[in-house]
Design goal:
Blueprint: H1 9-48, H2 54-90, H3 93-99, H4 104-142, E1 152-162, E2 165-173, E3 180-189, E4 195-206, E5 211-214, E6 217-220, E7 225-228, E8 231-234, H5 240-246, H6 255-267, H7 273-295, H8 309-335, H9 341-364
Antiparallel strand pairs: 1-2, 2-3, 3-4, 4-5, 4-6, 5-8, 6-7
Helix pairs in contact: 1-2, 1-4, 2-4, 2-7, 2-8, 4-7, 6-7, 7-8, 7-9, 8-9
InterPro entries: LptG (IPR030923), LptG/LptF_permease (IPR005495)
Main location: membrane
Subcellular location: Cell membrane
Length: 365
């Protein structure tokens, strides 16, 4: 019987249903509270743009909720695991299952299977919904919650250098030679890297080479004078290809698009460690939900009357949150080359899978 992970179909469905309903309830409460707090912080900026009102606030919520769901789903699975197992333990249901011959792994199997299904659904949700919502929200924030250009790019707040010249842009639209920069600021520096000239323009179009600023306002530092120009061509060394590889947002691209961006950046001779780690984390991140039942399993076992149930629940919660801390730390190490990208994305998952299995075996099996 110990080799059969699902000895009872009725029991499997009962545990899975109990677990999934609690995941959804915890996730709903977390997203609701966090969305309200986030909206309170952003509503002022959204409404500050002329013409924005209730519909724009609802539009912001529709773009922000997918991000919150993706980020806090693993936390919801962890909390739901502890709530479910602690309740079963307190009601002596775990004791009944073990008295019927079920092992600790058999008790957890329906929860782990449910979490695996949720991980697959989370991956699909991230790829199809979250990336698009992130891309649109980035483009909207880049224009200060104004009208989003139809061909807006998720690249925003660009900072580009061409020798002594600096070119900054709030956002861009179009591709290739049809690319347009919006909210442009240009700086020209001398041999000592001191700014000697500044120009601001609403738009800049690619002139091959360089960029043509439309009706820029020029400020000369030496004479402290301001003048209006009809147009000006600047930064001949900055090309659309250079802009494309200058700022790749992994959160705004699906796994296939990110792979293409990584290849383009690598061909340009630039470092891709951060992007490689983000690519692998698109797989290991959703799969972390399947790890939570194993880390929270310590709350399921032990006599509730012994008074240690709360301590066990706290230990399970500590193991789960320790995983998220190590996961973020490993990604940070991978971003600046401390860890190889594959290790940065998968090492915390494998480490805590071994820790959870070791705790389970030593305490219950």
């Amino acid at each position: 019987m110990h080799l059969e992970f699902f000895p009872s179909r009725t029991l499997t469905l009962y545990l899975a249903r109990l677990f999934v309903t609690r995941i959804l309830a915890v996730l709903f409460m977390l997203v609701l509270v966090l969305q309200v707090l986030d909206l309170l912080g952003e509503s002022g900026d959204i409404l500050a743009h002329p013409g924005n009102g209730q519909m724009q606030l609802l539009y912001y919520v529709s773009l922000r909720i997918p991000q919150l769901v993706a980020r806090f789903l693993p936390y919801s699975v962890l909390l739901a695991t502890i709530i479910t197992l602690a309740t079963l333990n307190q009601n002596s249901e775990v004791i009944s299952m073990k008295a019927a011959g079920l092992s600790a792994h058999q008790v957890l199997a329906p929860l782990i299977l449910s979490a695996l299904v949720i991980s697959v659904a989370s991956f699909a949700f991230n790829e199809r919904v979250v990336t698009r919502a992130t891309s649109t929200l980035d483009a909207w924030e880049a224009v200060d919650y104004g009208a989003i250009p139809e061909d807006a790019s998720p690249k925003a707040n660009l900072y580009l250098a061409d020798g002594p010249e600096l070119l900054l842009a709030q956002s861009l639209s179009g591709e290739g030679r049809a690319m347009t920069l919006n909210g442009v600021t240009y700086y020209r520096r001398d041999a000592n890297d001191m700014i000697v000239e500044q120009m601001r323009a609403a738009r800049a179009t690619y002139a091959n080479p360089g960029w043509t600023l439309e009706r820029p306002v020029k400020f000369d530092v030496a004479s402290t004078t301001t003048s209006q120009l009809a147009s000006a061509r600047v930064a001949p060394g900055i090309t659309p290809a250079k802009i494309f590889i200058s700022k790749v947002d992994p959160d705004a691209q699906d796994i296939a698009a990110l792979g293409g961006s990584i290849a383009a950046v690598r061909e340009a001779g630039r470092r891709t460690s951060e992007l490689d780690a983000a690519w692998w984390h698109k797989l290991s991140g959703p799969l972390s939900s399947a790890l939570m039942p194993l880390l929270g399993a310590v709350a399921a076992f032990g006599l509730a009357r012994s008074g240690a149930l709360l301590i066990r629940a706290v230990i399970g919660m500590a193991l789960g949150f320790a995983y998220f801390v190590f996961d973020n730390a490993a990604l940070a190490m991978g971003n600046f080359g401390g860890y190889p990208p594959l290790v940065a994305a998968w090492a915390p998952f494998l480490l805590f899978a071994l820790i959870g299995e070791t705790v389970l075996i030593r305490t219950e099996e």
